[in-house]
Write a structure and sequence with these properties.
221 residues, four-stranded antiparallel sheet, 2,3-Dihydroxybiphenyl 1,2-Dioxygenase, domain 1, 2 domains
Length: 221
C-alpha cells in the first residue's frame, strides 16, 4: 500500500466523481428512491475484495454518500488502495445509471480552542468516548465508531477574558462550491473575520460573533 497526497489522489485517472474533503475522499450519487439507493449499496457489497478495504456508506432515499480513507500506523489519508476501490465504486454507479453530485458533499469539523489544549483534551475524550487520531494524537480526537464529527484542538494565542477558550466549527466543501457557500453566508448576515489563507479556508462570523471556517483542500497536503 502506497500513501498518496491529496493532489495525487485527485489527479488519478477515473476519479472525476470524487472529492477529498477533511477526512477522506467522498462521492455522492443521486437516486430516485430508497430501494434504488439500497440496490446500489448491495452492488457495492458484491465488489471483489470489498471487505479488504470497506467504504463508509450513508444511505438515504435521495442518494448514497460514500467515503474512503486509509488508516494505518501514523497515516490517516489516501493511498493507492483508495484509488482502486474508488474506481470500482464509480464503475458500479455508472453501470446502474447513477450520476455523482459534488454539491451534496460536505464534512463537519468541531474546533475547541484553549490556551492549553493538552489540559482540555482529556475532558472531551471522556465525555465523547472518542480516541486520539493515529497520525495527530496530540491535536485530534475521532469517533471510534466513525459516526460523529472529528474534533481538532487549536491553541489560542488570545484567550477569551478570564483565560477561557472558545469553540467554532469548520465545514469542508469541494473547492468548486466553496465560494458560492461563502457568498450565501455573507448574504445571510455573516462577515469575514479572516481570509488570508483563502481558498484553503475563510473564517466567518455570524451577527452574534460565533465563528465558522469554510474549508477546502486547496493548497493542503
Amino acid at each position: 500500500m502506497t500513501n498518496l497526497t491529496i493532489e495525487q489522489f485527485q489527479e488519478s485517472e477515473g476519479l472525476s466523481d470524487w472529492r477529498v474533503l477533511g477526512d477522506g475522499a467522498y462521492v455522492h450519487y443521486r437516486s430516485g428512491s430508497f430501494s434504488e439507493s439500497a440496490g446500489f449499496v448491495q452492488a457495492l457489497g458484491e465488489m471483489p475484495s470489498v471487505d479488504e478495504h470497506p467504504p463508509a456508506v450513508d444511505v438515504r432515499a435521495g442518494g448514497v454518500t460514500v467515503r474512503l480513507i486509509s488508516i494505518a500506523g501514523d497515516h490517516y489519508g489516501m493511498t493507492d488502495q483508495d484509488v482502486e476501490v474508488a474506481r470500482q465504486i464509480s464503475t458500479v454507479a455508472r453501470d446502474l445509471g447513477l450520476s455523482s453530485d459534488p454539491s451534496a458533499l460536505q464534512h463537519l469539523l468541531v474546533i475547541p480552542g484553549a490556551p492549553d489544549t493538552a489540559e482540555v483534551m482529556p475532558f472531551w475524550r471522556a465525555v465523547l468516548g472518542y480516541e486520539p487520531r493515529p497520525d495527530s494524537p496530540d491535536e485530534d480526537l475521532v469517533d471510534p465508531h466513525d459516526r460523529g464529527p472529528a474534533f481538532w484542538f487549536e491553541s489560542m494565542d488570545e484567550p477569551r477574558p478570564g483565560g477561557g477558550g472558545a469553540i467554532h466549527v469548520a465545514v469542508w466543501l469541494p473547492l468548486e462550491h466553496a465560494e458560492a457557500r461563502l457568498a450565501a453566508a455573507l448574504a445571510a448576515g455573516g462577515r469575514i473575520v479572516r481570509d488570508d489563507s483563502a481558498p484553503s479556508w475563510w473564517t466567518l462570523a455570524d451577527p452574534a460573533g460565533n465563528e465558522l471556517d469554510i474549508a477546502t483542500t486547496s493548497g493542503r497536503d
